Automatic annotation (TrEMBL):
Function: Bifunctional serine/threonine kinase and phosphorylase involved in the regulation of the pyruvate, phosphate dikinase (PPDK) by catalyzing its phosphorylation/dephosphorylation.
Name of the protein in its database record: Putative pyruvate, phosphate dikinase regulatory protein
Enzyme's top EC category: transferase
Keyword Nucleotide-binding applies: yes
Keywords from the named record: Kinase, Nucleotide-binding, Serine/threonine-protein kinase, Transferase
Amino acid sequence: MKQLRLFIVSDSVGETGELVAKAAISQYLYADQNAVLKRFPYIDSVDHLQEIIKLAAQQNAFIVYTLVSHDLRSYIKKETIKYKVTAVDLMGPLMDALERELGSVPLEEAGLVRKLDDDYFKKVEAIEFAVKYDDGRDPRGILMADIVLVGISRTSKTPLSQYLAHKRLKVANVPLVPEVDPPEELFKVDPSKCFGLVISPEKLNHIRKERLIALGLSDDANYARINRIHEEIAHFEKVVGRIGCEVVDVTNRAVEETANLILNKRNNRF
């Protein structure tokens, strides 16, 4: 079987063209053993295309291309006929069909799929980060986080972390308890990344009582007593004062509202 030389031409990475080419080649016995594939990624001008087409003509190569630009596709179609080079357009026919079906013109912007993939994986990474560094379980996350949330129990630290993670931000949160020294990392992190979450004692008293009842416990436990809450808030104020971070009041605020407030404050700093 003769050797097959295949040029993969793309305005992005060229992965799609190569995968389709390999899938097609695999249908021919032993063809994959005699195939030489070469990628030409990030092609965005007719000058580049001209060089590739001439090289393909010299080496008797077959061109497979995935180009979103109508002008570049038209050029390669015309020039490969001129140079008697076999060429297959993987993207054009589908885009033309979609244009007719949707009644709108394509963006013709290269690499959009990869941008969407990158965005998705950043979100997944941020969500995994929020889970791993939730509730102060590993203080090392404090210095790696985009945002650090600090607060006493039942101030929405975890739901806020998850909400912000869906905005592709890595968030660590740290609970503050008077009997436990806060991690030293809190005092090493950039204060502009840190936000203290505070709530009115009366509201917190109500929330904690409801929490205890939901767990089947007495709502008279020390955890929900107003004097205990004042003690925790005093400890919180001492810690955030030492950190030097901004404090956000979460009283009667939905998670989305608090998150947007934090994002606005953060964006105004950078």
